[in-house]
Amino acid sequence: MSALKSLDPRVARLNIPSEIELITEKEEQDQLNTYQVFRQMNLKRPFEHVGIVHAANLELAFTFAKEQYSRRQTCSGIWVVETEKVKTTDFTEDQESIYSKIEEPENKKGQMEEFDFFHLDKRGKQHVHIGSMKAENHEMALWRAKQELELDKPVYNVWVVKSEDLLKVEEGFQDIWDTLPDKRYREAVDYKAGDKLKEFKERMNQAK
Amino acid sequence: MSDIELKDLLYKVADDQLILGHRNSEWTGIGPLLEEDIAFSSMAQDKVGHSLAFYNLLHQLGESEPDIVAFTRNAEQFHNSKFVELPIGEYDFSLIRHFLFDHAELIRFEMLSNSSHEGIAKIAKKLKGEVKYHVIHADSMIKQLGSSTTESIERMQKALNFAMPYALGLFEVSEYEEKLISNRIYAGEVAIKDRWIGDIQEIIMKTSLELPDTKILTPEYGGRKGEHTEHLQPLLEEMSAVFREDPTADW
Fold first, then answer.
1. In a 3-state reduction of DSSP, which class is residue B133?
2. Do B144 and A11 touch (CB under 8 A)?
3. Would you place residue A180 in the very low, low, confident or very high pLDDT band (cuts 50, 70, 90)?
4. Does the predicted model carry a pTM greater than 0.80?
5. C-beta of residue A101 within 8 angstroms of C-beta of residue A155
6. How many angstroms separate the CA atoms of B238 and B249, rounded?
7. Which residue of A lies nearest to B53 if distances are taken between CA atoms?
8. Averaged over B26-49, what is the pLDDT?
9. A54 vs B contacts (CB less than 8 Å)
10. Is residue B8 less than 8 Å (CB to CB) from chain A?
11. Residue A186, pLDDT score
12. Binding-face residues of A in 38-57 toward B, CB within 8 A
């Protein structure tokens, strides 16, 4: 089979076959866990869900999340949690708040510990951290929140995470977040190529 | 103290960053998983950015423009260690190199941020946070792959054994060293190496890997004096190919 041709010498010398066999089945070992990532854009803003990374463990998930989600936006902190550790409610629509559907759980047992809450206030937007409270378990946390929270707007979906399950990287790491303002070269706007491109196109048209 | 000593230090720091940054960028698009591809590429870009900061400082000391310095010198005019010019190899080697290099780099940046030379201290302070992240990344990868499957551990160990003499070459002492130390520019290569061994040992101990005995290894010196492996010149030609098409082009 012939090798893939590329103008990039780094790719050309890899001898990648020009036709690649499609992998239809993957070994189970090949699948990494997913982790949910929350980012704080600056110290005055709440943490907000930004997306997902695949990783082999929580520490690597943070490592990936940092470059993935703070590379081009300002950032003052990142939290990550394994996806299966996030307990979610159902969804509601319009004026109906999901809290109206939360019923008193049968299981009231458990050690009191801290839970973090993320609310979805608008369909299509991301979940935003609203705070934390102590409860016996995830279900009780939701039930207690229903009693205590005074909401003026409906909440459509809630994520509840045991605080202990979240890896929170904020204070003490200020220097790793402070590096972005000098990286304008990473953004397209820093390359003022518009005029040159226009000129190039005109030259090409004239040559035709 | 004259500028000769300062320039010697700045060139080796900047050349290491430029060459390793270019090398590591070769993984862009073919990294082992998307997230790692992005992180590794981003760090490679940081390294090139660091070299620019130091080349700018050299320019202030009377050297040519950064682009000229970066793209028009031949291999024997480069002061980087042989370690950073070695081909990327398999990912095991690239990760081990990243781990060994960035631990040394972080110590170097910490020392330089306390330098008596204001310009150097300012750059080092500003960029230290990025190197700190590079070390966090390296440590998490080494801890994972150094304690994972048998194949993984064996490959990482083999890469570590191969890399170690080259890594020791990072600390090649220059003839200007004493002056730089007595003028409190930085604490010198031997001081970096001593701290480095402790730092990497601390991480290696958390894995199934073993650190080769650095006392019985012969370091791969020469790079700081312009003696390089056969791998540097082709890298330079590739890196400067676009620049040489039209050296006067305005980017």
1. helix
2. no
3. low
4. yes
5. no
6. 18
7. A182
8. 94
9. 33-35
10. no
11. 67
12. 53-57
